[in-house]
Amino acid sequence: MKKTAYLLLSGSLLISGGAMATEEPKYTVLTQVDDFELRRYDKQLVAQTWVSGDQDSASREGFKVLADYIFGNNTAPSGDSSKLSMTAPVTMQADNKESDNESQKIAMTAPVSMQQDDGKWRVQFTMPSKYTMQTLPKPNNPNVEIIEVPAQTYGVIKFSWLAGEDKVAEKTEALQTWMQDQNLMPTGKPELARYNPPWTLPFLRRNEVMIAYQTE
């Protein structure tokens, strides 16, 4: 699979209903040169699960498991009365809860990420920023776990159209070369970020390859 063998895959979905869109992780652009950027991402909570299969089937299965969690297969904290996220008011809504035994719907955010390791894929879904480890509903499925990802800095290359394997390998190599020219030391594997649902016209799609790097 060329340079995409250990590619991290991520994407976002739009919620039906007009201009409703998903929240994205917060970041600061440090440098921008043509299609390249250096970004500093804030720490974030993610839900993750491990699945088997090829890239496509693992992506579908992993997202299915995590979607089941965010759409209600969870146990909300007692007394949680939050309804809307201030950062994404059209997508972040939860009902008032009276006990620990009630479930809560969690808004969808970007990215959903995927990483291969020992024949399995780790699929991650970024949690809405309104939650903390203490307030986030707990998964009922033992195959779903919540972890905190620390703040990280990434090199990024942006591109449109389809994110096929050859195109991604080309963009990954271009990003690695650019980062090497900037004397940046990678600390993570390449990540592919896809920010549109599958029905989006190719020329309107937003894709990115991201690589974490070491900072002083």
Automatic annotation (TrEMBL):
This is Heme-binding protein. Pfam families: SOUL. Gene3D superfamilies: Regulatory factor, effector binding domain (3.20.80.10). Keywords: Signal. It comes from the Bacteria. Residues 1-21 form the signal peptide.
